[in-house]
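Minimal example, chain plus 4-fluoro-L-phenylalanine.
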Amino acid sequence: MSAASERTMSMSSQRGVFSSKTGFILAASGSAVGLGNIWGFPTNAAENGGGAFVLMYFVLAFCLAYPALMAELIIGRHTKANMVHALQIISPGRTSKIFGTLTGGYGILVASLILSFYSIVAGWMLAYLLEPLTTLAGLDDLSDWLTGNSIARNLLFTGLFLVLTCSVIAAGVEHGIEKWSCRLMPALLLMLAGLIVYVLMQPGAITGLKLYLIPDFSQLGDPKLIISALGQAFFSLSLGVGTMLIYGSYLRPEENLPAMGAIVTLVDSSVAFLAGLLVLPALFVAQQQGLNIYSESGSLMAGPDLIFQTLPALFAGMGKVGTLIALVFFALMSIAALTSSISMLEVPVSFTIENHATRRRSATWLAGIAIFAVSAVIVVNFTALFGLVVTLTTEYSQPLLGLLLCVFATWVWHRDMILEEIRSGHPEVEYSLFWKIWPGYAKYCCPLLIALVLSQSLSG
Ligand code: PFF
């Protein structure tokens, strides 16, 4: 055996593992709960019929995204490998192995591309987190620079955010991912709860609450609403790109997979729902204070203007309390982004460690530098590239990859192996409702429904 393959084997035998159930739940929920929940979900809901979108989202999250999440978790825990290797292991024939290699490679590429645009947005959050402090210190020029949209600021803060992400991943599964998820997720939930209570007590909040919660059922059958809700659900549960697969591969055999997946889906959907209780009421509090909350097209403010103009203006109008609220809000956004970005970076890093016999530290910084280079290209050509990369990765690639993973789990792999894998943490699974529904559902319904929604979105 060559020295390199010996080193690979010894490295893979030292694969990381989540030391506890809570550690896994917080890490996987941390991956799921991100900017998609706190920014994307409420604004998507406001644009697509309020409560009707919320309803559709919950239905799709549990009926389509949860089964796809289970496919990833089961493949991951069984193979204990990165996405490429995992799909090779479960593929019996030569052709399916090649197809598995290509799908795995595509997943790793998409995860890295998502991280390259995600870290730009996360960098904005870090800059806005510092701004209240520099304003308090009287450093007005610095405050203007932090909130001005310059290339230099964007490069610096994207880089800073990637350094934070790399520092966590370089420390490994237990001492990096698990330790930081266990610290950051409770802080995130506390901050979110505190902000909701404060905002709901302000004048105007109830109008936003009504818009959010009262469903406009006439929009329920609108393909745009369904496509947006499915895209949101796949992005929010971090599906298709191997993050859940790799987290599943660090899960101990005695854990109950269907229950773990259900808890993660529930936490993710609940946090998205809670974020709506914060963002939409906050918009109408801003309107009460005389701020404009509608864009030029007449729709409710949703894009970067909402987060980086309307909300900061609202906070600024609240005096000293506003400074604290701004700090907490942007800390919340930064934490949400960090627990998600670490899961994205783990995808190329685990591949590099396992396939190229590289040490975790080197693999992490290497992947981090490559992703920063792509982010820099996007920052410099922002108008041409940013929207394009977001659409290609999240709207098309994630659902397509989710579909492919369902196909691999149920058409390529053996049903008996899946049963055996789930049984290790749930001995009676054979007699459970999950096993009565999931195999057939993930085999026929999921791929068909995802393909249907994808074709709708492709046809515009
Ligand atoms: N789920 C994250 C969010 O809602 O912001 C985004 C995300 C994380 C997408 C990890 C993809 C991924 F692999």
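The two ends are 54 Å apart (CA to CA). The mean pLDDT is 93.
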